[in-house]
Amino acid sequence: MILIYEGSHFRDPKERKKIESLFKDQKIRWISESMLDHTIDELLKAPDDQVTESPVQNAVASSLSKKVYPNKKHGNPALIYVTDMPRERLEKIPDLLDKNGFDDLFIAVQTPANQSWTLKELLDEMKKEQAYFDKRKVLESLIQAANPERMKTEPKYAEAVMTCWNMLRQPEFPERLLDMAIEMLDAANRDI
């Protein structure tokens, strides 16, 4: 089964049909803003008639959601939550979505831990993860912008760049260290 939280992305019926065509062999359950406080497990187990809502409920929830997630490209971020899918197919989902114009979606896979989370908690966690990876990209771009001549002539500058580069080679490190590294390298690159 695939849960699709519509966010602001899938209000257009054409967009819904397009995403449904990509997963036509899967059962799809559409989830709306009024269900943010339900756990993933509840959403997976509920009968279909208990996760649908009236257009009035959807309109009220939609206006509230703009206050909850105001900064994503499409306003409230959409989420595709996948259960029971072979790994080979899971790995193809991001490219499939990108090729079809769905490049601003969160994708989550069912785990024992996240089933007990509410939909809002899962979205919040996905936003935190996205922010973390965005910061890694910022640090990478700062490393790429490093001045090769300064690296040869200024040992402290070279050490700062190499320290940041070594941090990026780690799969994970605390976000506060990432923030410090960005600040340090940004200042060093500006300090000419």
UniProtKB/TrEMBL annotation:
It comes from the Bacteria. It holds the Pfam family DUF3783. This is DUF3783 domain-containing protein. It comes from Ileibacterium valens.
